[in-house]
Design brief:
This protein has 242 residues and is of the alpha/beta class. It contains nine helices and five strands. Bound molecules: adenosine-5'-diphosphate and magnesium ion.
Length: 242
């Protein structure tokens, strides 16, 4: 059975993956600005953003009431909701959807939390296969330095504190995120990630991403398939562009 469903829609799906502090959000935001500047309809999608389950996840996290499999199922529910209500309709309309984390995040995180690799892959089989998936490879120290430089504390779940790996939050972050890195690294050949050296400058990484996108979408970028319609459909164009 193939891992994901093929993208049968007019639009495209671009995904960024990597541990916290690897620079995903910075890069996908720059990439989407660039695509928009070319007149392409672009939409954003974030992990854990569906109103349907956000509140449940928040409450459950607080009380530590989920097992690894229930956590995984809740995230998959959230993802399914977002895919069906938001990502797929936008792709049907011909937009480029830029996703900040995708099913691969579950393949890394949920496995480190204790569910089996094949079980979680099977769970997400309904997901649409991305046209391009970038993986931002970064050493732990660099990621940690960026997180601590940008705000003053590591988040409890980001450090995997609930797993009891260490009482020291920084040490726990290293162990937990280190294991997630191992999962991502093992996924590279399996998933066909485009690996970006995330220690490079913001500009260099962005340039590499644009070259990869041009190589993948060259024809549709040139023929205007992904472009916002100039007339006749202004309303749809505007809502896609938000
Ligand atoms: N190439 C880079 N070099 C130095 N700092 C960076 C780089 N890319 C991102 N940052 C900074 O690192 C922090 C984390 O970046 P962010 O894009 O939020 O990462 P992520 O979304 O992967 O957690 C931010 O403060 C950001 O400005
Ligand atoms: Mg981010």
């Amino acid at each position: 059975m193939p891992l994901f469903a093929a993208n049968r829609y007019k639009g495209k799906l671009i995904v960024v993956e990597g541990i916290d502090g690897s620079g995903k959000s910075t890069q996908i935001s720059l990439l989407s600005q660039w695509l928009r500047s070319k007149g392409i309809a672009v939409a954003f999608s974030e992990w854990n953003s569906s109103p349907l389950v956000r509140e449940t996840t928040r409450r459950g996290k607080k009380k530590e009431m989920f097992t690894p499999s229930t956590f995984s199922l809740i995230h998959a529910t959230d993802f399914a909701d977002r895919l069906e209500r938001y990502i797929v309709p936008l792709m049907k309309a011909g937009a480029v959807v830029c996703a900040d984390r995708y099913a691969y995040t579950a393949f890394g995180r949920d496995v480190v939390r204790g569910v089996s690799r094949s079980w979680v892959r099977n769970l997400y089989r309904f997901a649409v296969r991305p046209n391009v998936a970038f993986y931002f490879r970064v050493p732990l120290d660099v990621a940690l330095g960026r997180i601590l430089g940008g705000r003053d504390a590591i988040k409890y779940y980001e450090a995997g504190m609930d797993l009891g790996l260490s009482r020291d939050i920084e040490e726990s972050f290293r162990i937990f995120q280190g294991r997630i890195i191992d999962e991502y690294e093992a996924m590279i050949p399996e998933m066909g990630f485009h690996v970006i050296d995330a220690t490079g400058s913001i500009e260099d990484q962005q340039e590499q991403m644009r070259q990869i996108v041009i190589a993948e979408f060259g024809e549709s970028l040139a023929t205007g398939v992904l472009h916002v319609k100039e007339s006749g459909n202004a309303e749809t164009g505007a809502s896609i562009l938000r």
